[in-house]
Amino acid sequence: MKAREVLIALISVVFGMFLGFVVYKKRKEILRKLEDLTLSIQDSLLYEKVRGQVMDIKESIKALLESSTELPREKEDEILNIVEEKIRKLEEIMKS
Predict the structure, then answer these.
(1) From CA 86, how far away is CA 66, in angstroms rounded?
(2) What is the enclosing helix (H) or strand (E) of 72?
(3) Is residue 10 one of the residues assigned to a domain?
(4) How many Å apart are CA 30 and CA 84, to the nearest integer?
(5) 2: which of 8, 12, 18, 40 lies 20 to 30 Å off by Cα?
């Protein structure tokens, strides 16, 4: 019975060493895949932020163009300032 326990322990140790060796050899590939996954998540989050900002800017410009025929100068300036602020926010998102 004792020899069987020793054999099982020896097989377990060899199997553990084999798995450790495989993981060690594949570590660069695993790290690269994790990095790719992280970048794709960041890209999708950035895309959603940018998309929202672009839609806001589009709506602001559309509103300005539709109502620009009869707007007083102060209102045009106010709308342009809002659009410029949204563009600045978009630039900040793109930088980060």
Answers:
(1) 19
(2) none
(3) no
(4) 43
(5) 18
Residue with tokens 């300032």: 81
Per-residue pLDDT of the chain in tens (96 residues, 90 and over written 9): 688 888 888 888 888 888 778 777 877 887 788 788 777 777 777 777 777 777 777 777 777 666 656 667 777 677 777 777 777 777 777 666
Q: Into how many domains does the chain fold?
A: 1
Determine contact, residues 60/76, Cβ cutoff 8 Å. no
Q: Give the residue numbers spanning the domain of 65.
A: 27-95
Q: How far is CA 36 from CA 32, 43, 91, 95, in A?
A: 6, 10, 24, 20
User: What's the CA gap between 65 and 76, in Å, rounded?
Assistant: 10
